[in-house]
Amino acid sequence: MKYAACAKCAKSVGMVNVFGNIMMILIKGYLGVVGDSKGLVADAIHSGADLLATIVMIIGMRISARPADKKYPYGYGKAEHVVAILIYLFLFVIACYISFDGTVAILHGHQIVPCMDAAFGAILSIAINELMFRQGICAGSQINSPSMVAKAWETRSDVYSAIAVLIGIIGSRMGFHWMDPLAAIMVGLIILKICIESIKDSALKLMDKTVEEDIMEDVHLALSKIEHLAKLRNMQARDVGSVLEFEMDFDVPTDMNVAQGEQVKEQIKKAMMDAIERDLTIKVRLFATSG
Hints:
The protein is built from eight helices and three strands, in the order H-H-H-H-H-H-H-E-E-H-E.
């Protein structure tokens, strides 16, 4: 974590998103109904889904923060990936409904002409969601929280959907009445794309997919700088929520004593912790070999 203030900022992300989404549900819902904009109403539903997703994210982070115990000796870190999947499965259903409703409106030839109040709601949505995204992605990256980063990117999708809604409102007022429900369909498709990608990513991490290549490169670079380091026999790594877990096996000379072995382990751990700005769990095993 680069700055101490990041921890405080991260703790406020949940409540900022809760109050921000409540405000947008009320404003967009009201202006969408009064302004006769199907796209803005769909966006209000999207904000309602965001509110639920934020609540689930907060619960998931609290669960993953629990220390390891007898029942879960490896900790609760993967709870964040489970929560992320639940968030996106729910949003997937919402996206299907929004797209279906917009399609029905176009096929039935509904003459939708939103008023400019609806456009104001879309502009306000763009501004608020962009601010929430920037806070969430920064804080989530600093504390390495998968569910917070997932929630942040979902908030960024709100920005794109609000832009689509604004274009749809303007187009409908210009006489292209199908543009507003088309904007609702676009909102749904944007959410669907993000849901599919994020569910896939979280599922792979639950299956103990190895960490990103750039992190592994940093590890090898850090180890290469240690003088007279024993030969690396095997290394396994996995993403456990906000923590990266490494298991490493090294070959060492048969004449190395216990004290020297412990010193080697400490050098390895220190080098890795200096190279990677994430919480790490490192298990090092040394094997005596005459080679």
